[in-house]
Structures are given as structure tokens and as C-alpha cells.
Amino acid sequence: MRSVDLALYADVLAGEAASLAARIERERGKQRQASIEREARAALAPFAAERLEELEESLDAIELLQAWVEGALARAVA
């Protein structure tokens, strides 16, 4: 086995490790944010919490529409 091959593989593994560490940190951040949001929702007036839920539902609908349009575009190009 050549040392160049080992060095290249070590670089690949280091990149994968860094990528996984970043993903873990993003997930931890999401968990912290979700905890803060739950606390904030409990403190908000009911109409504000309802409005946030409506906005989240709107975002979900837009994301579904976007996915459909992108799928249709991919099918049209293929």
C-alpha cells in the first residue's frame, strides 16, 4: 500500500468526520432552538401561538408545492 493512497484516504476520513461533527452540532442547535420555542409559545398570547402555527402550515404547503414543481420540472427535462 502506498503512503500517498493512505494520506488521501486519511484526508477523506477527516473530511467525513468534520462533516458529521457539523451535522451533530446543527442537530444540537435545532434541539436548543426547539426548547426555546416551546418555552416562548407557552408565554405567548394564544392568538400569537395560533398565528405561528398558521404560518408553519403555510410554509409546509409552499414546500410541498415547491417539491411538486421541481418534480414536474425534472420529469419534463428527462
Describe the structure.
With 78 residues, this protein is mainly α. The protein contains two helices and no strands. The longest helix has 41 residues, at 3-43. The mean pLDDT is 93.
List the helices and strands and how they pair.
Layout: H1 3-43, H2 46-77
Q: Mean pLDDT, rounded to whole units?
A: 93
Q: State the secondary-structure class.
A: mainly alpha
Low-confidence stretches: none
Q: Any idea what the shape is?
A: flat
* Total of DSSP H or I helical runs spanning 4+ residues: 2
**Radius of gyration over alpha carbons?**
22 Å
Task: State the total count of DSSP E strands.
Answer: 0
Characterize the largest beta sheet: strand count, sense, and whether it forms a barrel.
none
